[in-house]
Amino acid sequence: MAEGASGPVTGEPGSRAAVLGSPIAHSLSPVLHRAAYAAMGLDTWSYEAIECGEDGLAALLDGLGPEWAGLSLTMPLKRVALDLVDSVSDLAVRVGGANTIVLRDGRRHGDNTDVHGIEAALTEAGLKAPPSALVLGGGATAASALAALARLGTSEAVLAARTPERAAGAAEVGERFGLAVRVVPLDRVAAHLPADLVVSTLPGRAADALAEPVAASGASLFDVVYAPWPTALAAAVERAGGTVVGGFAMLLHQAVRQVALMTGREDVPVAAMRAAGEAELARRA
What we know:
This protein is of the alpha/beta class.
C-alpha cells in the first residue's frame, strides 16, 4: 500500500457509488448522496447501499469496473480498507481508518471524512476549540472525535470507556494529534465533570444513565446518535439550556466531503442534502 497525503490521482471519475457495511439497510447515505447528485445536475450518477462484511471487501473491490467513482464505508470496514487501497491520506493513516475510497484511473485512494464531519458539525454550532472535553466511548468514532477536537484547538480530553484497556487505541490517536488524553472507567464519569464539551459516541440508549449528571454540569453536548432523536442525554442537556449537536450534522458534513472527493467538484449543495436527510429522518420517526 502506497501512502500519501496528496489525494487521489486526477482523471474523470465514473458515475456509480455506494455505501458498504454490515448492517447497511437503514443507512442514510443514499438519501444524502442522491440529493447532492440531483442538485448538482449529475443525472447519470447513482448511489446504492451494499451489504458487505470485512471478509467480503477485498473481492468486492476487485470486481469493480471503471464505472465506479467511489465508496463510502461504515463499520466494520474502515480499518481493513487501509490494507486494500493503493494510496491513503495522511489523516486516514493517523486516525487508523478510512471511511471513503475514491476510485479513479484504475486506482483506489483511501481517505477519512469522519474527522471533517465532526469538525464542521461542532464549528457550525459555535463549539470550536472547547478548552476541555469528556469523550464517552473508546471505539473508532471516539478516535475520530479526539482527532477532530485536537484539530479544532482542544488541548486535553478525558476518555471514558466501559473497558478502559480497550480504549487504548483511541487514546493513542488523540495523543498522535497532540491531545493530552486520560482514560477512565465509564462508571466514574461524574468525577470528571464539569467539562466544556461532552462527546458521546455510545450507541442507542447506552448513555441514558449519564443524562442528568451531564446536564447538571452545564456542559455542551455532541451526541453521535441521529435516530431515534433526541436521546435521553440530548433531551436532558437541552432542558438545562446547553448547546446540543446531534449525529446527523456529523453524517451530513462527512457526506458533503465524500461527494466532493468522488465527483471532483466543490460546489456540493449542503442545504439540499440537509433538507433531504431531515425529511427522511422525519419520515422514519
